[in-house]
Write a structure and sequence with these properties.
With 316 residues, the chain is mostly beta strands. 10% of the residues lie in helices and 39% in strands. It has three helices and 19 strands. The strands form two sheets. It has a 17-stranded mixed sheet that branches. A hairpin with a 4-residue loop joins strand 12 and strand 13. It is globular. Keywords: Signal. It comes from Kribbella flavida (strain DSM 17836 / JCM 10339 / NBRC 14399). GO terms for molecular function: hydrolase activity, hydrolyzing O-glycosyl compounds. This is GH16 domain-containing protein.
Length: 316
């Protein structure tokens, strides 16, 4: 899979800059546990849950809970496109209050908008990640065919080319119309070691699931003991430890938590304006605790049964 990674540098630095973090300073060694550390050596220390029960993108509770919406220029995707706050909303989708990200294009860079939402702080590392996510194979309106990418991922800044502690987990990068050498619907699950931005060269392990993922799916990733495991609807789809050259792809530092939707390029556009949507019903993270997909979903159900729409007890 050949692709530019310049966008990840732009995106991650923009997130941390928004909260005053210095991307060049990295993360203290004390915050970078050994990649072979087992869950027993790192005690569970809380969880994060959000049911996305907000009135709008300007709801004060949204930003108070450390979420932000990207509006800064730059990658990923189409150069010259706009990252628009108006593409973020909280509608009821199939009966559930949800986070929705839209992306639009009329086939020109100036007429293209992307969307991104992120947790601002680098505090997501080992443990279990889960989200209920609705992928789309066709646009809400307009012509089909765009090379759109629908994502859920974690990331740290790239301080410089081949940064030895760079960390990124693409828990899903879904391309309903293909792209990056694929000609049909493909979901990529990718664990990164590091990369060089320009000219691009990177070290990572990637698994491609070549089938439609349209509709609601539960995505889970576990990070523990040198293994990054990815699940879709309870089925293990990838278990990453090293790249093809034996370099670890296990994260080496804490990361931010992100959703975005963007166009890889405009080659598939056939005219008019197309509007794409992806939605997330909820997100959950258990720090330093490995859960099965069913156990993670049970935790979410417990919050909901108790009437809780948000929880943040991360203490380390």
């Amino acid at each position: 899979m050949a692709r530019s990674r310049v966008f990840r540098l732009t995106s991650a630095v923009a997130v941390l800059a928004a909260v005053g973090a210095a991307a060049g300073s990295g993360v203290p060694a004390s915050a970078r546990p050994s990649p072979d550390r087992s869950p027993q050596q790192a005690a569970a220390c809380g969880a994060f849950f959000d049911d996305f029960n907000y009135s709008s993108r300007t709801d004060p509770a949204f930003t108070a809970r450390d979420w932000s919406i990207r509006t800064s220029a730059g990658g990923p995707g189409v150069g010259g496109a706009t990252w628009s706050a108006s593409n973020i909303s909280f509608p009821v989708v199939d009966g559930q209050k949800s986070l929705q990200l839209r992306a639009t294009t009329n086939g020109t860079a100036a007429g293209t908008t992307h969307a991104q939402v992120q947790q601002n702080r680098q505090r997501f590392f080992e443990g279990t990640y889960a989200t209920r996510f609705k992928f789309s194979d066709t646009p809400v309106s307009g012509a089909d065919g765009d090379t759109i990418n629908q994502t859920f991922y974690t990331i740290s800044p790239l301080r410089y080319d081949w940064d030895p502690i760079y960390s990124e987990l693409d828990i899903s990068e879904y391309l309903p119309n293909g792209g990056w050498g694929e000609t049909s619907a493909t979901n990529f699950f990718t664990s990164w070691n590091t990369y060089q931005a320009d000219p691009f060269d990177g070290w990572r392990a990637t698994t491609a699931r070549r089938q439609s993922h349209a509709g609601w799916h539960t995505l889970v990733a576990t990070v523990s003991g040198g293994h990054v495991k990815y699940y879709v609807d309870g089925t293990l789809v990838a278990d990453h430890t090293t790249d093809s050259a034996g370099r670890t792809v296990y994260p080496r530092q804490a990361m931010t938590l992100n959703y975005n939707q963007w166009f890889i390029d405009l080659t598939g556009h056939t005219g008019g304006t197309s509007v794409w949507a992806q939605s997330a019903d909820w997100v959950y993270y258990a720090k330093n605790e490995v859960l099965s997909p069913s156990a993670a979903v049970a935790r979410v159900s417990s919050y909901r049964s108790a009437g809780r729409t948000h929880a943040d007890t991360i203490s380390c």
